[in-house]
Every structure is written in C-alpha cells, then in structure tokens.
Amino acid sequence: MDxxxxxxxxxxxxxxERLEITWPDQSTSVISxxxxxxxCPCAGCQGERDLLGRQLLPVVRTSYDGPIxxxxxxxxxxxxxxxxxxxxxxxxxxxxEYLRQLAAQHPQTTDQT
Length: 113
Ligand SMILES: [Zn+2]
What we know:
Layout: E1 10-14, E2 18-22, E3 28-32, H1 33-38, H2 43-46, E4 70-76, E5 80-85, E6 93-95, H3 96-105
Antiparallel strand pairs: 1-2, 2-3, 4-5, 5-6
The structure holds zinc ion (ZN).
C-alpha cells in the first residue's frame, strides 16, 4: 500500500479524556472519548443496514455504566486506529479519515480561551 497522506505524525491518547492527533499538515484534531465511543464505526455499535438501506437496531449494547475510558490504542496498517475500551469493546477500527471527520463535527473547546 502507498503511504497514506493522512498518516498522523503523532497520536496522544489521554485515557480518560480524549484523543489528540497531529496530522502531516501540522493541524491537530481533538476528540473526546465519549464522542469517540459513541461513534464507534463497527457494525455492532452502529447497527447493520438491510438491503433497503434501513438501519437495524444495534445488536450489541454496552452494559458498562462507569465512565468510559480507553485502555489503549493501536495502529491498524497505515490507515486506521483500533481503540481498546474499558467496556471490553475491541472491534472499533477508526480510519484516519473518519477520525478527522469526527473531530470536525464535534469540535472541542476546552483549550480555547
Ligand atoms: Zn463498536
């Protein structure tokens, strides 16, 4: 596979707060873990679509009711990040493109003054 132009230059995981990604263009995306967990792209969380494109209810529900934290994260090839969650959910694979979109759609304001 060719080099991914979106390959982050740095990824920082603050395990009970947020994910920070620095992109090759030096911009930084910050995504709160709550948003990240909610928008887990795996079929179990987002529900599968039937042939008519209707959204089916997700079949996997988290029963973990404490604060969601990330246990860790690992690179998947050169295109995605897999996040390991404290509710034992390990199937979410977030492509860098998806992470960038998520950050744009859910801007963090904590560092703004
Ligand atoms: Zn999921």
